[in-house]
Amino acid sequence: MRYESQKIAAWYWYGALLVFALQVTFGLIGGIVYVLPNFLSELLPFHSIRMLHTNALIVWLLLGFFGAAYYLIPEESEREIYSEKLAYIQLAIFMLGGVSAVVGYLFGVTASHGRSYLEQPLWIKFGIIVAALIFLFNISMTVLQGRKTAITNILLLGLWGIAIFFLFSLYNPANLVLDKMYWWYVVHLWVEGVWELVMASILAFLMMKMTGVDREVVEKWVYVIAATALFTGVLGTGHHYYWIGTPSYWQWIGSIFSSLEVVPFFAMVVFCFTMVWKGRRDHPNKAALLWSLGCSVLAFFGAGVWGFLHTLHGVNYYTHGTQVTAAHGHLAFFGAYVCLNLAIMSYAFPHLKNRAPYNQVLNMASFWLLSSGVTFMTVTLTFAGVVQTHLERVNGMSYMDAQSQLGFFYLMRLGAGIVTVVGALLFIYAVLVPRTKEAISPASAATAPAE
Amino acid sequence: MIHESFSRQAPDSASASAVASDSGWGPLGTLPGNPIMWILIVSELAVFGAALVGYAGARLRDPTGFVAAQDSLDRIAGAVNTAVLLTSGLFAALAVEARRADRRAAGRWLLLTAALLGCVFLGVKGSEYARELAAGHDIDSHPFFMFYYLITGFHALHVVLGLIILAIVAWFDSLENYETGAAFWHMVDLVWIVVFPCLYLMR
Amino acid sequence: MSELLTKSAARNIFYGGSAFFFAIFLALSAHSHYYAVTKSTTAPITDSVERGKRIWEAKACFDCHTILGEGARFAPEVGDVFVRWGGDKDPKGAHQMIKDWMKSQPSNTPGRRQMPNFKLNDKELDDLANFLVWTSTINTQGWPPKKAN
Amino acid sequence: MDRNALRRLTACWIGLVALTAAVGFLSDFAPRLQQLAVAGIALATLLKTRLVLAHYLGLRAAPGALSGFVSAIAVILVLVAVAIGVTPLLANAFS
Fold it and tell me: Which of C3, C9, C11 shows the shortest C-beta gap to B180?
């Protein structure tokens, strides 16, 4: 740790990991309900479970991004964070909002104008906005007063975009078509727009640190990735505007641009592997490297390939609103953003704790558990979705009758979910509990399966 | 912000592209103009290419309907516009040559001519749209017209962006900016060359 | 020096190109906004429809059901429920069916997914049903492909 | 200004305008000699794009990029031309 204020990141990540644990736990409970429908049905109905699962996901990923920004900006800008105090105030507001939301959801308190992912009551939304403003002020001041690099430039653009598009969560008109149109301004322009900028800059930072490749080369890649992400992703929003009451021209605009959304993800794979190959530096933190490479590959499959599978409007006409969407959502979020956060945490925690990389084998084991868990979950949901599409959308079977044919897939998904939860808990243990003596010696770590 | 990036100073080398060539941009570095402009150009070609392939696919379902719709287009206006854009491209290419020979005033005049021809293109295109709309052909009336308006409209917006870029280049007239701006303008030419026969001529 | 220029120009092209696509997106959004309020459906959004929508939102119905294909995929699509339940032939009957369905929850059938009883009063049930009736009038470009029941 | 460049660009422009006239002329035959006209238009268009890429866009200096762009455009033109010209023919043959 070269700058004192980088330790802010640790506190954000403690919060993030706590919410991560909650997220996978509620995911597991949701998975159980799919198999045993009467489970908790009185105490905690499915809609509460689902909003806890999805909201916790968003909250912890954002906490992770905030932490990543506080960790990498001092090193990039070559100065301390503008105000440590503001950073902690921001964390307090954000955590308070997050915890209140969780407690509220458990007791059925949600927004009167809620929408999927945006169920937070209005006062919590305002809290989030205040926290975001504090954050943006704090890091913008740091960046402006320090060295300006392509990495901080793209990161800052991404983070500003997150805050700006979140403002659309406040606009919920009575017209359902408009409601949906602007809902995607938040959801799509986040995950297939500005979040990708955050992803590109964090991955670039990690690659630069771990492979030792010149900043010059890394920064050019960042621009190429960021440019392809926004050139395709903005009009790619059209792939959500096929069947919600919007004009038919979106079918072609959405199909064409969103097909190309796979390009930035492919570029990230090529980037990461080229850097590792070019760098040839034997970085001791194997786990962080594994997470980074895994991030690019799984994002390419989850967001890129699985997204493309059902993005053409001719296909989407049949698959829209089936488990195919759920399959894509799980692997895309995991590959692109979960892996990203876990990669920077794996890289940074040893520095924050001022020690050599530790628990490498446990951490890498958690990578394989989590990745195989989520990948298997995605595969089972894809099969479930394909069967559902055929039964419901081709044969015209009713929803519940079709669902009754899918029990086996949901059972396997539950199995994959258990593996995922074990992997998540193992990761948390591996980064938070450094041992004085390695559980498995680093010598055997070197022979552990590498990507 | 613009001032620090679009410098008025000319690089010493004969071609600004040489500057970028061996500096980590990979194959992009060997192309004239800024590498990110080429990322934009390739993205655009992919978009227009996909749109044209989509058009060809949709046309298979209803060839006679498409031919009938195509016949309402003004092929003469389309051909004239092609010539206008190609001539504009010539002036843009000559402008780069002038700037390369350090004749900066000539370069600006040539750019201005190129931009004026771009305006002519937009004028002709606008009159075509007005005629089509007056005849009751709008974006919802037939699949052909949906493609026609989406593809040519998107292209026309690129002409508008190209005009803005040419203006910026005339203001900040480094050789690299000339090469970058001209590359975009020629891409707009290139797209039209492919779009015009696919929509107007191939029946 | 030139290297630096090339990079800052690269940044500006990235900004400019993104702004271009975003401007097109905003223009198309504006057109779609106009289309949504004038052409998607001509059925008026009455106060009752709006109140129904707010109930839909406050009770987080979308966290189990899909509406026009969006939401959780735990329970049936409701965008066309009014039509599926015969609302095109017998509007009053289908309206009443929606209300009765809401009142009869939870089914407590073992092995079947459970829908909570949201304890809505008669007026709220009317509002919710009216919202679903209005939703069924939206032009969804022919989606869903099959009208299952 | 470099005289050679001037001459080369002017020649390129003349070629482009001539090819434009040629595709316009070919399109007049489209209703009668459909397949031949479509193929001719596609070929002339491909030549035009090659001229623009090589001389206007300056890809003469980067032959790899030039052939890459030309092939990509060729693929698009072939797909469109086949869909417009050949596929209806096949459909007729089998119906």
Answer: C9
Contact B24 A223 (CB under 8 A): no
The set of residues, in sequence order, having a beta carbon less than 8 Å from that of B83 and lying 6+ positions away, is D17, D20
Three-state DSSP class for residue B13: coil
Given a contact cutoff of 8 angstroms between Cβ atoms, the answer to whether A397 and C148 are in contact is yes
Chosen from A109, A184, A244, A393 to mutate, greatest number of chain C CBs within 10 A: A244
Q: CA end-to-end span of chain C, whole Å? A: 69
Q: Is residue B80 part of a domain?
A: yes
Q: The domain that contains B72 carries what CATH number?
A: 1.20.120.80
Any CB–CB contact under 8 A between C8 and chain B? yes
**Domain residue limits, chain D:** 3-93
Phi, psi of C71 (to 5 degrees): 130, -165
| Structural tokens at position A408 | 């086996």
Residue type, D64: G
Per the structure, how many domains does chain B have? Answer: 1
What number is the ipTM of this complex? 0.92
Instruction: Give the pLDDT score at A437.
Output: 65
**How many residues are present in chain C?**
149
What are the mean pLDDT values of chain A's consecutive 10-residue runs (451 residues total)?
93 97 97 93 92 95 97 96 97 93 89 89 93 96 95 96 95 96 96 96 96 91 94 96 96 96 96 91 91 97 96 96 96 97 97 92 97 98 97 94 95 97 97 75 45 34
Q: Supply the Cα-derived Rg of chain A in whole angstroms.
A: 21
In chain C, the largest separation of any two C-alpha atoms, in whole Å, equals 77
**Shortest CB distance from D56 goes to which of B189, B200, B201?**
B189
pLDDT digits (tens, 9 = 90+) for A82-126: 999 999 999 999 999 999 999 999 988 888 888 999 999 999 999
In contact, A57 and A23? CB cutoff 8 Å? yes
Q: In Å, how far is C141's CA from the nearest CA of chain A?
A: 6
Residues 175-204 of A with CB under 8 A from B: none
Cβ contact, residue pair B54, A255, below 8 Å: yes
Q: Could you tell me the residue range of the domain that residue B56 belongs to? A: 48-201
In angstroms, the CA D6 to CA A352 distance is 63
Distance CA C27, CA C29 (A): 5
pLDDT at D3: 84
Q: Do chains D and A touch (3 or more CB pairs under 8 A)?
A: no
> Which chains lie within 8 Å of chain C at 3 or more CB pairs, if any?
A, B
Q: How far is B47 from chain A (nearest CA, A)?
A: 6
For residues B114 and A210, give the distance between their C-alpha atoms in angstroms, rounded to a whole number.
Answer: 49
The subunits that touch chain D, with at least 3 C-beta pairs less than 8 Å apart, are B
Question: pLDDT tens for residues C74-84?
Answer: 999 999 999 99
Inter-chain residue contact B89 with D52, CB threshold 8 Å: yes
Chain B residue with the nearest C-alpha to that of A235: B47
Cα–Cα dist D77/C94, whole Å: 53
Residue B26 lies in a domain: no
pLDDT tens for residues A394-412? 999 999 999 999 999 999 9
pLDDT band at B2 (very low <50, low <70, confident <90, very high): very low
CB atoms within 10 A of CB A410: 20
| DSSP type of residue A168 | G
